[in-house]
């Protein structure tokens, strides 16, 4: 679903991503952890076509994102959930969800916001998935923070994407609400077979909701494994950049991404990364 090989991205002289390799499968919920400034948002923005990488390979849902694409084409494949949900407060909840369809309407219907009955039905189904069908006609500004974030998820689902990218979607919510929002996101995407990459700050949530955890440090993948393998040593590598005895083991074979491993950011690792077909 997502294929990334040796992806590099700089802002001027600031080299942010240093050769990222990552594959994400359909229906997989990947939590990305890392210190502030590690490059998590930059990587998500590359996957969403908002940032253009300097070099490497990047394909999402079969689209080669190293080439330029129209927003409409990308909207059929990738949806984004933001920390501050980016909803229009004065619009109804349903209308906000329907904006997820805009990228897929023709130019004129999109300008005039002429939605088909099928779009409206889809929006209501998406609201049902996040437990907010009964709020469809309410003004969005009347909702709580957690409910607004669930509307943001419904809007992303309404795009019928293959991939949802969530950048710290629960950073401004209290723990109970945050858990409930992540639960809705995970359940809906799992049932629909949507791949999710979700940047989070909280290790606890990564353990609880991730099918897989990817740790980023200074623009490199330094951990890629199951949440159960996210032990103290792994956290040390992700958050303090201090490889412990066992991490990495220089003699270890290059692990498949499904296998838990803390990946060393050393040249042999990069040289041996296979380049898959797009
Ligand atoms: N639009 C931008 N222009 C210039 N530098 C940026 C921009 N976005 C991010 N950066 C820089 O890239 C680095 C990684 O930032 P970011 O991807 O936001 O990390 P994270 O999401 O892990 O906190 C930081 O040094 C940040 O200052
Ligand atoms: Mg960020």
From TrEMBL:
One GO MF term on file is: ATP hydrolysis activity
Sorted alphabetically, which InterPro entries does this protein's record hold? AAA+_ATPase, ABC_transporter-like_ATP-bd, ABC_transporter-like_CS, ABC_transpr_PhnC, MetN_ABC_transporter-like, P-loop_NTPase
What does the UniProt keyword field contain? ATP-binding, Cell membrane, Membrane, Nucleotide-binding, Plasmid, Translocase, Transport
Which Pfam families does the record match to this protein? ABC_tran (PF00005)
Gene3D superfamilies given for it?
Answer: P-loop containing nucleotide triphosphate hydrolases
Task: Domain (ABC transporter): give its ranges.
Answer: 2-243
Gene Ontology CC annotation, any one: membrane
Keyword Transport attached? yes
Q: Which NCBIfam families does the record associate with it?
A: ABC_phnC
User: Could you tell me what this protein is called?
Assistant: Phosphonate ABC transporter ATP-binding protein
- Please give the organism: Polaromonas hydrogenivorans
Query: Lineage of the source organism?
Result: Bacteria, Pseudomonadati, Pseudomonadota, Betaproteobacteria, Burkholderiales
